[in-house]
Structure formats: C-alpha cells, structure tokens
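Here is the promised in-class demo. Please do not try to memorize the tokens; focus on the logic of going from shape to residues.
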C-alpha cells in the first residue's frame, strides 16, 4: 500500500487550495511538503484524518522571528506542516475536536488578504524587472500559430511514415521547451493578473462583511 503520493496542482485561490487539501485529508492523505514553486503537493498516508488544515500568510525578515511565530502557533494548538520564513503562505493543521480557527471573522481574513497583496507587490517589484531584462527578446507569440518553426531537426517535415514519427517525438520535448521559453512573460503576466483579481474579489467580499 502506498504511504506517500504526489499530486500536481495549480491554484490561484487560497480558499480553493485549502478546500482541496482538506478533501485529501478526509481521504487519509495529509500534506507534508510542496515543491516545484508550489505546484507539486506531497502527501503521506495517515490513520487520523479527523483534522483540519488552515492557512496563514506571513513573511519574516529573519529566521528568528519565524521561529518565534511558529512557537506562538504551537502554543495555540497548531502544528506547522509547511512554509518557510520568506515563503508567505504558512500551512497549519489541528485536530477538529479542538475547534480552532485561524480566522474567526471577516476582519481577520481582510488583514490576511492585505498581507497577501503586499506579498504580491513585493514579488512583482523583483520578478518583473528580472523577467523583462532576461527574456524581453525571447517573447515571440508567432509560435502559437507556427509551432513547427521550433522543430529544428533537419528535413523533419519532409520525412514520412515511421521515420517522421520517430524524429517528431524525439524532437517534441525540446520544441516544447523552446516554445515555452518564448511565452514565459505572457504566461507570467496572465498568472499575475488572475492572482491579483482573485485577491481583489476576496477583499471586496471581506470588506462588505466587515461593514
């Protein structure tokens, strides 16, 4: 029987991510690590699934402040299962029978959302100049309607039958990487826009509840 599994997921909403992780937990799979810049989720098999996962969002200037924060959360009954001092999202778990809530009202959720927005702006101020400097000459949207230009095997498109398919599938991973290289900036911009507007909608909802 498998004791650990890995799932690939991309989330633009903390609420959807939290809900998914708790569904996995109810099935007996508890999160213990995340890799690949937050897209590969690693789970371990557990016998006690009567727990709940909740998120906080905090970045710390140093590891000592982070350690003090974790100790405070531990004293409050939460077990930290993933998150680094500068990663932002902090993942906590507790037993359901403790009836703990990291955020018990709209005001506290609004404050978390403000920290998330601050984190987004901080990341953008660093990432956008880096991507512009490194990749400003690599974006070429023509690959979307002329992807064959990224297949560099000589004479590929003149080949036929099995010879063509062998050459095509051999070249395909390299062509996809070249295509992705051209589209890095547009993809990043789309991700940033989606994250921003999801955050904006949540803040609007929390603000209405506070009022």
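The designed amino acids, position by position:
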């Amino acid at each position: 029987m498998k004791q650990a599994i890995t799932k690939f997921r991309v989330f633009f909403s903390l609420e959807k991510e939290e809900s998914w992780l708790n569904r996995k937990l109810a099935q007996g799979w508890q999160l213990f690590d995340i890799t690949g810049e937050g897209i590969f989720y690693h789970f371990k098999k557990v016998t006690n699934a009567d727990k709940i996962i909740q998120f906080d969002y905090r970045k710390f200037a140093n590891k000592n402040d982070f350690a003090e924060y974790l100790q405070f959360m531990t004293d409050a009954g939460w077990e930290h299962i993933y998150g680094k001092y500068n990663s932002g999202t902090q993942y906590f778990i507790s037993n359901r029978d403790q009836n703990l809530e990291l955020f018990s009202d709209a005001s506290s959720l609004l404050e978390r959302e403000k920290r998330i927005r601050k984190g987004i702006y901080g990341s953008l101020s660093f990432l956008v100049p880096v991507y512009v400097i490194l990749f400003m000459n690599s974006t070429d949207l023509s690959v979307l309607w002329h992807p064959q230009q990224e297949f560099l095997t000589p004479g590929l498109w003149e080949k036929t039958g099995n010879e063509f398919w062998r050459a095509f599938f051999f070249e395909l991973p390299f062509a996809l990487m070249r295509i992705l290289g051209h589209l890095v900036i547009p993809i990043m911009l789309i991700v940033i826009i989606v994250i921003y507007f999801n955050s904006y909608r949540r803040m609007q909802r929390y603000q209405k509840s506070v009022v």
